[in-house]
């Protein structure tokens, strides 16, 4: 290639990189590079194949393998009462961090240095050392503030590539920068999932049994295989697949919580709140369905479920959060609808990372468009050492979750990633962002997390608000009027 400033081209195992004196020159050189790809071993999977596999697995029931019963109590099969059931699904999601993947590496014959935002310094040192063919103690890692991680920077492929590329230009620091399309196309995605949920209910509409089955690949197994290729996954249940469906507070004495591990080879990774982002949506929407079937107010129904759990500490903490939610609901009635706009208020109660969060979402549905106007979150993270930071993190988690709830979807077509940039993978805009208030409850319990806890409750709160406004149940993400 004849591009001013280009210093060379590097061929990696699964990538090609152009090294130049400026990013613009490198990008121009990459456009002109004559690259022939061998697609003979490429995947041909499409989104429809994934969901067909999920449906087939769930239809097999107990005959499907690997099926993991992660939590159970009592005998679900012997429960009596009216059966209520529903199926939910959610798509693959990109991380779309504001700062695309990047890293700077400096490699010599005897040592190396790495400058990068990441989520594990020790793992960076280990993998960079392997890429540079050096002992780990000869690699120095510098960690600037990262421009968004959300689980994406737990996977360190971008750092390995940076070190490999810099290794071809020993003694010269090389900064590797991914474009936005490269960042979206070469992600480790939040997995798509499908869940079948059923419950038997008594005369009061309360569950006598609860059966939860989710078809989803194991993020943990894939992550470990990428970080430590010699490690063998699939030997035990991956709890993260059902996080959010394991009940630390509701009284469900007869239950079976199961994961059907279905993996069609699409790379999946940790995404803000991990399994809670999926399971809390599925579960809290279904709890609302049970409340509606029993003709009980959604908050009152949850109160009954918490009461059945007794003096159990998580139930007490969740009950306090629910009490604050009810007080806010009473003191701040939903504004009346205007013209043909429909309004609704939805609720969700979640526990994640040893913290409890309840969220109230006020929505408007205008000509089929969902607009989230206000969100109130009640947070018990044990004790808020830095309340402004807790509030900021919860607001961040809510806005991040809203992007997924309203817009997020990564599809695959014959092995290729469909969205390429923010025009086809839109994010929540400032104009569309709701007013968010955060109320902190200091329970005095052991300290819990705050960085991810705002995300899980927002999708079910909004979906439940849409039902309150329109009477339509939305069981698929992203939330779209007219699609159940």
Account of the 3D structure:
It is a single chain. The protein is an alpha+beta fold and 484 residues long. The protein has three domains: 1-39, no CATH class; 49-93 and 189-470, 2-Layer Sandwich (Aldehyde Oxidoreductase, domain 4); 101-177, Aldehyde oxidase/xanthine dehydrogenase, molybdopterin binding domain (Aldehyde Oxidoreductase, domain 4), CATH 3.30.365.10. The protein is 30% helix and 24% strand. It contains eleven helices and 17 strands. The chain has helices at residues 23-32, 47-60, 121-132, 157-167, 180-185, 219-227, 276-293, 298-308, 313-331, 387-406, 458-470, and strands at residues 6-11, 16-20, 67-73, 82-90, 102-107, 112-115, 139-142, 174-177, 193-201, 207-215, 255-260, 342-352, 355-366, 369-380, 412-413, 416-417, 435-440. The strands form five sheets. Strands 3-11-10-9-4 form a five-stranded mixed sheet. The chain has a four-stranded mixed sheet with strand order 7-6-5-8, covered by helices on one side. Strands 12-13-14-17 form a four-stranded mixed sheet. Helix 6 links the parallel strand 10 (207-215) and strand 11 (255-260). Helix 7 (276-293) runs parallel beside helix 11 and helix 8 (298-308) runs antiparallel to helix 9 (313-331). The chain is globular and about 75 Å long. The termini are far apart. The relative contact order is 0.13. The mean pLDDT is 96.
């Amino acid at each position: 290639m004849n591009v001013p400033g280009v210093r060379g081209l590097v061929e990696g195992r699964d990538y090609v990189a152009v090294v130049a004196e400026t990013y613009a020159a490198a990008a121009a050189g990459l456009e002109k590079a004559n690259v022939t790809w061998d697609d003979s071993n490429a995947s041909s999977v499409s989104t429809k194949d994934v969901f067909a596999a999920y449906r087939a697995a769930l239809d097999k029931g107990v005959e499907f393998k690997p099926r993991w019963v992660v939590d159970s109590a009592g005998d679900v099969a012997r429960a009596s009462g009216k059966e209520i059931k529903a199926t939910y699904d959610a798509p693959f999601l990109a991380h779309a961090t504001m700062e695309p993947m990047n890293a700077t590496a400096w490699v010599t014959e005897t040592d190396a240095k790495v400058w990068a935002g990441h989520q594990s310094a020790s793992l960076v040192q280990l993998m960079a050392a392997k890429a540079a063919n050096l002992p780990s103690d000869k690699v120095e890692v510098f960690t600037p503030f990262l421009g968004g991680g959300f689980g994406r920077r737990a996977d360190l492929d971008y750092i390995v590539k940076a070190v490999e590329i810099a290794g071809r230009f020993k003694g010269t620091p090389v900064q590797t920068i991914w474009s936005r399309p490269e960042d979206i196309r070469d992600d480790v995605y939040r997995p798509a999932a499908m869940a079948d949920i059923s419950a038997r209910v008594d005369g009061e509409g309360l569950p006598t049994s609860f059966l939860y089955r989710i078809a989803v690949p194991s993020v943990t197994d894939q992550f470990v295989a990428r970080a430590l290729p010699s490690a063998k996954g699939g030997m035990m249940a991956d709890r993260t697949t059902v996080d959010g469906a394991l009940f630390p507070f509701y009284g469900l004495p007869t239950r079976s919580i199961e994961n059907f591990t279905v993996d069609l080879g699409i790379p999946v990774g940790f995404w803000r709140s991990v399994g809670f982002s999926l399971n809390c949506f599925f579960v809290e929407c279904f709890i609302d369905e049970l409340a509606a079937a029993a003709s009980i107010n959604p908050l009152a129904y949850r109160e009954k479920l918490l009461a059945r759990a007794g003096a159990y500490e998580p139930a007490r903490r969740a009950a306090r959060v629910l009490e604050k939610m009810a007080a806010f609901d009473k003191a701040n009635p939903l504004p009346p609808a205007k013209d043909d706009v429909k309004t609704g208020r939805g609720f969700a109660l979640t526990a994640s990372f040893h913290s409890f969060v309840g969220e109230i979402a006020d929505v408007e549905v205008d000509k089929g468009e969902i607009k989230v106007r206000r969100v109130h979150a009640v947070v018990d993270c044990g004790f808020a050492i830095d309340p402004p930071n807790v509030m900021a993190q919860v607001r961040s988690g809510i806005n991040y979750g809203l992007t997924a709830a309203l817009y997020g979807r990564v599809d695959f077509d014959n092995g290729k990633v469909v969205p390429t940039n923010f025009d086809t993978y839109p994010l929540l805009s400032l104009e569309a962002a709701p007013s968010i208030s955060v109320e902190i409850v200091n329970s005095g319990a052991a300290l819990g997390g705050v960085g991810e806890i705002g995300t899980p409750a927002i999708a079910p709160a909004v979906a439940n608000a849409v039902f309150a406004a329109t009477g339509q149940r939305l069981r698929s993400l992203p939330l779209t009027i007219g699609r159940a």
